[in-house]
Amino acid sequence: MLSTGALMMIVDETIVNVALPSIQQDLGIAAHDLSWVVNAYLIAFGGLLLLAGRLGDAFGRARVFRAGLALFTLASLACALADDAGTLVAARFVQGAGGALTSASVLSLIVGLFPDPAQRARALGVYGFVTAAGASLGLLLGGVLTQALSWHWVFLVNVPLGVSVGVAAARLVPRDRPSAHAGRPDVLGAVLVTGGLMLLVGTIVVSGDTGWTTRSLLTGAAGLLALSGFVLRQQHATAPLLPLALLRSRVLSGGGAVIALFVAGMFTQFFLGALYLQQVLGFRPGQVGLGFLPVAVSIGVLSLVASPVLIRRVGPRAVLLPSLAAVVLGLGLLARVPVDGAYARDVLPALLLLGAATGLAFPALMGLTMSGSAPEDAGLASGVVTTAQQAGGALGLAVTSAVAAATTSAALREGSPALTALTEGYRTAFGVAALAVTLALLLALVVFRPRLTPAGPTAPRAAAQPPS
């Protein structure tokens, strides 16, 4: 039941991707603003996740889980009923806030409900599986719902699911007591980090269409100022969302940066890959969902079966580095897609490679990064890691979308046909995504040097959500 709640949050990061062309046409959203439908969710999720964890400590995790699920369900209904872009984006932001409240409590609740090590391992295995395949499952479900019904149903499906999980949670999840050591939640810190991310993403998205203007530069500066204010706030807050001492660990802070770059590149395949299949190759939404099914299967099988075995035999670093290199290769293949491409020849090999490489890389990367924190800090470290994922996804999507839009606009001005210009934009964006993962690989070589990592195989102390 708890894993189902977590799955809803993860699926919602990508379920909308296949429906984006339909949403764009129905609501009249400009191409350069379309990424806000996804980014509003990611920013709220990532920016509020640390606050959500503190709220769970202060008011009880079961209570926060139910409150988050209720907020997520109501916001999903608002998304389904939205009749303009502003309403949809605002409702997506509230959805992300509900997702943060729900997801921040799931792992702690699982640990508390399953004290027996064997039962806990099975419960965490189920949780790991649903999170590993959630992003690709979202594309499949989104395609089926959009084609069979309408884009409204990619949000409306959350309502009966949310009510069912909420009823089950009220009956099955016992109330836990708030932590006696929980301080007052740092709301100002949450506002600063979330606002800073929104301003930076907005600057990147707008600059991709209008170029760097005085207004966009001022907006970007305001975003950086807000994030700087967040760092200063953490130095003086009574109960900081992010104890800066935690980041003194080179492995944890550096690993968080690797994760952010990795997810920044990986998220491009789901967002722009779905648009390429529909707008260039002419796929219907259901076909797009099926087209990404190999990614879900590869991630699920490799992360559950092959990755643990390889990590035990050769160590997490030896698994991570070639897997990141394979991700770079997969994105490089997508950067070569032609305007007259064929799915089996030009897309499927890249998706299979990306799915397999992600399934191997993600558990190893999580294990190495979490090894940089002490056991008593595992909960906070997990929050840092998950925040890095969401922030990396939001910023990466903003950058690649802006690059795609700017490249397409330039090609159209030069007289290129519409489909050729679109393809050129997507290819350039995939190249930028490959560059991001290349930087992740180079940083991983430095951060996870053999002498800095555990002598034996490492398993993550706390799971985090997969790249989406």
Describe this protein's structure:
This protein is mainly alpha-helical. The protein folds into three domains: 1-180, Growth Hormone, Chain: A; 187-237; 246-468, Growth Hormone, Chain: A. The protein has helices spanning 2-14, 20-27, 36-59, 61-81, 85-113, 117-148, 153-156, 158-172, 187-210, 214-236, 250-279, 285-291, 293-314, 316-334, 343-370, 378-413, 418-447. Helix 9 packs parallel to helix 16, helix 11 (250-279) runs antiparallel to helix 15 (343-370) and helix 14 runs antiparallel to helix 15.
Give the arrangement of secondary structure elements:
Blueprint: H1 2-14, H2 20-27, H3 36-59, H4 61-81, H5 85-113, H6 117-148, H7 153-156, H8 158-172, H9 187-210, H10 214-236, H11 250-279, H12 285-291, H13 293-314, H14 316-334, H15 343-370, H16 378-413, H17 418-447
Helix pairs in contact: 1-5, 1-6, 1-8, 3-4, 3-5, 3-9, 3-16, 4-5, 4-8, 6-12, 6-13, 9-10, 9-16, 11-14, 11-15, 11-16, 11-17, 13-14, 13-15, 14-15, 14-17, 16-17
- Helix percent reads over 70%
* Average pLDDT figure: 78
Gross morphology is globular
Q: Main β-sheet, in a few words?
A: none
User: What's the count of strands?
Assistant: 0
Structural class: mainly alpha
Instruction: Give the strand content.
Output: under 5%
**Count of discrete structural domains:** 3
What would you report as the Rg, rounded to the nearest angstrom?
Answer: 21 Å
Number of helices: 17
Which residues form runs of ≥5 with pLDDT under 50?
A: 452-468
CATH superfamily of the largest domain: MFS general substrate transporter like domains
Under CATH at level 1, the class of the largest domain stands as Mainly Alpha
Organism: Modestobacter versicolor
GO molecular function: transmembrane transporter activity
Domain Major facilitator superfamily (MFS) profile: 1-452
Protein name: MFS transporter
